[in-house]
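Annex B. Sample input.
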Amino acid sequence: MERPAGESLERVGSMGSGFGPGAGTGASVGRPVVGSGNEADPVPGDRPERLVRGEAAFDRLARLCVPRIADYCVVHVEAGAGRLAQLSVAVAEDRAGRSGERGAAVISGADPQALSRILATGKTERVPLRGSRPSGGEERGGAGEVLLVPLVAGDRVLGVLELGFLEPGRRIGEADVALVEELGRGAALVVEHERLLEVERRSRMRAEYAADRIARLNSVAAALAQALTPAEVAKVLTSMGVTALGAAAGLLAAEEPEQGYVVLDAVGFLADREVWGGEVGVGSSSPLGVAATAGAPVYLQSAEEWQARYPGFSPGRDREAHGAFAAVPLIVDGRAIGVVGLGFRAPHEFDEDERAFLQAVCRQFAYALDRARSFRAAQEASRARADFLAKVSHEFRTPLGAIIGYTELLDSGRAGYVNAQQREYLGRVAASAWHLSELIEGIQTFSRMEAKREVVRVEPLDLRQVLSEAVGMIQPFAASKSLVLEVEAPSEPVPIVSDRAKLRQIVVNLLSNAVKFTERGRVRLRGWVEDGMILVEVSDTGVGIASEDLEKIFEPFRQAQPPGAPPLAGTGLGLTVVRGLCRLLGGDVRVSSEPGVGSVFTVELPARAKVDDEDKPAEIGLEVVR
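Annex B, continued. Sample output.
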């Protein structure tokens, strides 16, 4: 028997048009039962998380329909993979069950295949009532039927609304069918709107998370670019990388010569560093050791998995950052040179994307660690070379001192008469000895600068006196080539504060370089102070330097040799030392040149060297001589 149309319209007025909390009364709403449309009966189970979003709207829809339109209402929602979930169930209170239970769950009276058909076609149908009965309800008999209404939002069918009576022979009228369809569309639109809002919210959160993670990883990459030692690389991981990777703890272990794997730095693991120390390398049975040996990551998604797979290396479960763990080897050229360990506070599912991300980040740490190890090896080789050069030059200096001393003694005539030819020979010996002394001094200075052992000793000076000392040292060399050595300096004292030995060596090296590359003409030295800066200029009429070689001449052991010219004497360190000393004193040197015309070198230094110069490397000492 159908309900009268007038009765339906009267009920519409009392129900209203909204889905508010007070919509619908006289119904007991039960919790859902989840089942598959391909099963004979739905079976209880957990509701998919994504269905909870529409629960409130569909609960209100069920309350609107019961008892005004039907005795019971079941909202079936599409749950993916061909499954339907009973999200909301409403039963009229006077039909909830003879046993006095209120809100008893209703087992669907519709055939599962019919429900699937409505989901596919999006059309309303009346279907026969199955022979089963509602939980706690009366036995069904007669030709009962169930109304199945699709929940449509736009072009999407979100689910199926099932309505029926718990008495045989009763059916829903056509006016009520139209009403239910309209209510279903309204509820579906609300749910779809909530879904779209949720999609937008999650998209925004993912974008914000991705942007934040990219910013953090950029900071990590920038820090890694500045890391020069393995310890500094490990510090980047513990101070920045752990947070950027979303972990609570981290460590970096690296293979060290004659030590095996050593934990360089760790954070968040407390005393576990002692447990892993000596047990992280190749051959170890710890997670880190297995990752290093196999060259493949080890992922432990929970403390239970950690305990089961590595009982001897699993910390207590009550400790922080032990809910999950990842050990990622640092691979370079197919070989593990280190391993990164990351701890997470809660169980953590390492999906494919996250595993790829962790490995990509750890590759950056691998490259940085390899670069730091190469830099360290280069430093060690550089120190060994500097030590060797210092020892060799020292061995040369001792006999050279004797040669210079005896030459000066003979030239003075105190050991006997010296004729003109003998004096010429002694001059050549002195010039050669001075040249060798200059080479030795250049080597020693270069080795000290390379090893960062050069010390600046500043004192009050007269610029004119320093220039005069340099000219006196170079004069024999210039005279041996019949070159004119011109000097332009102030007639009055020029007070400055600088390092006498280093300033003199700068001038001597520039004058020596000018004389070496000038076969005829002159070499000119100018020195003055202007706007608080010492300016020293050395120009010559020599062979000049090609423009492409202007920067190369300051590189160690490099000389700009004209095409077809015989091999040049010297070590190629003179101008390298000049630039290094200039920068050590807070200044620099520049050059301009024209092949076949000559060159001009200009030095600029502070007239008063700063004792508190924070830009100087910490390895360089600074001493004030009063």
